[in-house]
Design brief:
The structure is a single chain. The chain has 12 helices and 20 strands. It folds into 2 domains: 217 residues, no CATH class; 307 residues, Beta-galactosidase, Chain A, domain 5. The protein has a 9-stranded antiparallel sheet. Strands 5, 11, 14, 17, 18 and 19 form a 6-stranded antiparallel sheet that branches. α6 runs parallel beside α12. The protein is 37% helix and 26% strand. With 548 residues, it is α+β, with helices and mostly antiparallel strands.
């Protein structure tokens, strides 16, 4: 196989994959919306609608113990106008609804929505019907509040004071049977990890039994139309010692409800750059369900008991923030895996580490990408040199090979024998130019995903007109430079003997330039630097080393 033909196939395969992903994003099948069930219809007639909350109880998990009765859903019209508790810390701006104590809105103050609007934070959690995604939970059991019950807040505005590291936001619920529950959100300075505590004070004559649950509810985000969409996973992920990273996408949820026992794991809803994850107690039960057009991912903890006249506390942790690997590692075991590098994680993780080290020195992600590309190119210098030497030798032999083709015509056997004789005489191995490229491909793909998945590059400036390395070049300067470097590389490489292949190879720089117009500028910057270094190395070998 000729080196040019391999490069052609690799390039075309890459383009086809991107085209398929774009088609799936823009024109792929849309999720089917489940019709309301008979149970849902009956329940909705008994329970008035509540703003931003399903009007049915089908989103409640079933208690583990069969003897326990499922909690009843109160029919109280006033729940529709439950008050909000606003909480502001150094990193978060949060709205908690007194109805169920749900997290209905979470803004990430350190991450602006757009680089041009720095005072408007990115909203990860929202009860807006157009981007519905909330975190909720409660207790299951007799005399226990679930996310349909109304809590009472001591105040409606909380702020983390300067010099204070912890802020506690309590919500209180009382049952006439003699149970009082205080649900508290505990926020800490410089942290996206929030502790949720349930303090149960039992004044009944008998022991109280119940179990904690926590869940996410969200709608499937709409497909965003784009010329060349770059796919990043949005959906559920669960982790356990047996399977540390298991994607549960929306199609899988629609097909079947997940139900499994877990220990020392977590559940999460993730998207590009950001995630929310419940990190439960050591032993718990995971479940999923679909309620109308909303997807529920949750867990239930083990049954706990509080003696008569005693007070007990059960808690869970919630991470809600960016996919910063250092913070994720501190929050839970294997939580950093939600920064998804796919099957090349073993290669991508060292690349990310090296990129972070460089960034800590130069303090500019654009220059960090350039220096990282130089280091990777240096590591593969000798492999690349072997490939370029082979290209130069093949280019030198191209006139003789063409003469053989003209002489033997369609006699493929005689032609191959004559070509092998020339290769043997000149000590040229046509495959020596292919193998070094094949070795480097996994590294380059891993680097691609590192640049795609790193939230640190979001809205990170480089120089001049590049104010966001995760967004496309606004003036298309980098894609045009990238196309020019590809064109120069084509000229330095030996032309394929097949005229059709030669024409296709000449079209590729223009095709890639058009495609890269919509790519994040950080990725295009990598390709520009890599191509430029390749041109310099190839020119040096072709014009200096081969002549000697």
């Amino acid at each position: 196989m000729e080196n040019q033909k391999l490069l052609l196939y690799v390039a075309l395969s890459f383009v086809l994959i991107l085209l398929y992903q774009a088609w799936q994003q823009d024109y792929g099948p849309k999720p089917a919306v489940s019709p309301p069930s008979a149970t849902a219809t009956a329940a909705s007639s008994a329970t008035p609608p509540v703003a931003a909350t399903p009007s049915v109880a089908t989103d409640l998990p079933k208690p583990i113990a069969a003897s326990q009765a499922a909690p009843t859903v109160p029919s109280q019209p006033q729940l529709k106008s439950a008050e909000r508790v606003h909480v502001v810390t150094d990193l978060l701006s949060v709205d908690i609804d007194a109805l169920g104590g749900d997290l209905r809105q979470v803004d990430l103050r350190a991450y602006p929505l757009d680089v041009a609007v720095s005072d408007k934070p990115f909203r990860l959690i929202s009860d807006d019907p157009n981007q519905f995604f909330i975190a909720q939970g409660g207790l299951l059991g007799n005399g226990a509040p679930n996310h349909y019950d109304l809590y009472k807040a001591e105040q409606t505005d909380y702020r983390l004071p300067e010099g204070v590291d912890e802020l506690r936001v309590p919500l209180t619920w009382r049952d006439p049977s003699g149970v009082e529950v205080t649900k508290s959100y505990v926020f800490k300075r410089n942290s996206y990890l929030v502790r949720v505590e349930y303090q149960v004070h039992n004044t009944m004559a008998t022991d109280w039994q119940g179990q904690v649950y926590a869940q996410f509810q969200r709608t499937e985000p709409p497909n965003k139309s784009s010329m060349f969409g770059i796919y990043t996973y949005t959906g559920a992920v669960v982790s356990s010692p047996e399977n540390t990273y298991d994607k549960v996408d929306f199609a899988r949820m629609r097909k079947d409800n997940l139900s499994l026992e877990d220990k020392n794991g977590w559940i999460a809803m993730i998207q590009h750059y950001f995630a929310a994850a419940w990190i439960p107690t050591p032993s718990f039960h995971i479940y999923t369900k679909v309620v109308n057009d909303r997807y529920v991912l949750g867990y239930m903890g083990p049954i706990v008991s509080v003696a008569s006249g005693a007070t007990g506390t059960v808690s869970t942790n919630l991470y809600v923030g960016p996919k910063e690997q250092s913070r994720l590692k501190e929050a839970a075991n294997n939580l950093e895996l939600i920064v998804d590098y796919g099957k090349l994680t073993v290669i991508a993780q060292p690349i990310y580490w090296l990129l972070s080290v460089i960034q800590s020195i130069v303090s500019n992600w654009g220059w960090s990408i350039i220096l990282l590309t130089i280091l990777i190119k240096a590591a593969f210098f000798h492999l690349s040199a072997t490939s370029y030497k082979s290209m130069a030798q093949m280019r030198h032999l191209a006139p003789r090979i063409q003469a053989l083709k003209d002489r033997y015509g369609d006699d493929r056997q005689r032609l191959n024998e004559a070509m092998m004789e020339i290769y043997k005489k000149e000590k040229v191995n046509p495959l020596s130019g292919c193998l070094p490229i094949l070795v480097q491909i996994p590294v380059f793909i891993a680097l691609y995903w590192v640049l795609m998945e790193s939230v640190e590059l979001r809205q990170a400036p480089w120089i001049f007109w590049i104010h966001d390395l995760s967004a496309q070049d606004p003036y298309f300067v980098l894609p045009l430079i990238m196309g020019a470097t590809m064109f120069v590389q084509q000229k330095l490489s030996p032309a394929p003997p097949d005229p059709i292949q030669a024409k296709v190879m000449m079209v590729l720089p223009f095709l890639f330039t058009f495609m890269f117009l919509w790519f994040p500028s950080g990725l295009v910057l990598y390709w520009v630097v890599n191509n430029t270094l390749s041109i310099a190395q190839q020119w040096y070998i072709t014009n200096k080393m081969i002549k000697t």
